[in-house]
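Lecture 7 notes: from sequence to structure.
We start with the chain below.
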Amino acid sequence: MDVKDFLLSHKQSSQDISSQVFTANLKREISLGLLGKSNCVPMIPTYLTANLPKQSNVTNIIIDAGGTNFRVCLGSFDKYGKPTFSDFSSTTMPGVKFSLNKEEFFGQIAKNISYLVDKATNIGFCFSYAVDMEQSLDGIITIFSKEIKTSGVLGSYVGAETLQSLRKYSDISRKIVICNDTVATLLGGKCSCNKQYSTYLGYIFGTGTNVSYIENNKNIKKLDLPEGEMIINTEVSNFDKFILGDFDKVIVDKTLAPSQQLIEKVSSGRYLPSLIKEAVRIAKQEKLLSYSAVENEKFYTDYKVNTAELSNFLSIGSQSVAKYFPNASDKDILSQLIYAFIDRSAKIGALLVSAFVTQSANSTSSLPLAIVAEGTTFYKLYNYRKLFEQYLKELLPKDLSFDILGGNELNLCGTLLASMQL
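Predicted structure tokens for the same chain:
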């Protein structure tokens, strides 16, 4: 048995994912989500457009609550529309290390931004979790992903609770806008780009994964909206209409919410190391790896491997991983396993993005489209971007061209732009 047959036997190969079936199932959920009837792709309206004005000389507090880090700063646009940021602070995202109740969670958020309360009034809050948005630009937390630990927080208004907790430090009346990180990424790309594009998509591939895009209001059937366009936070990380592989099932069952965020749990940077460790464990059992090499066992029982180290093993033979595989043949097998999981993740990412490209407003324009990509894993995971682009070219119509846009602090730029709507 070789690596290819091993993965196929456990339904863990990219070949096990039928592009046609996957796309058809996802398109069905997209349509249902726009009707308010999908149980896995909620298609959340943001009430934000991609054509917000850059107001000069307005300074707002900007918050970026990510999968790992919680960052705060001041942001403003100068008279040329260039974003500037200052007074940075960064700490661990509340709920990463310890479970927090509602009062503790929002109390920690308020404490983290309290040093800026006398320097600016209104707040743009990039919140990297599923939020059911309302026309007030506030939203209710519906799901915590990325293994954030809280109790009593789901169902809370992010903005209102943050402002209420902030009153401990300041009684100034403030406004707040909540936007998802994928939405902030889309807006950040639009904000930072001088080239003309037919439409923009935001794509996150890091600790978690998600897509945002611009939709015609007439297609958002669950709302009675005027003519126009709106950014949709798809929360496609919760898509579950696909077949789980054997290793997927083991890892998903060990997470805090096994029935949620399934496509994220089989592809994103937070979960790839666990999937690969499980693959090594079974490969050892089935004698694909050397049965006598006890070091292999320590790799999946003791070693806290991360995505960066696995990537470095492929690129430079990182010894932090290599030492667990003293046999040259085992090193080669591990390389093949890691690469195969990266390839599978890239195919999944391309399938997710391609479905929303064809759904997007103005996607039939002769102009190229912009895919604004954010996430350390997207740019640094060995060959991920290359594989993603290859799959995307295969999936999209031949006459449709695209650019991958990146940049510094896209989340902050997009959140600052969103705050201009206050």
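Points to note: The chain has a mean pLDDT of 93. The first helix runs from residue 3 to 9.
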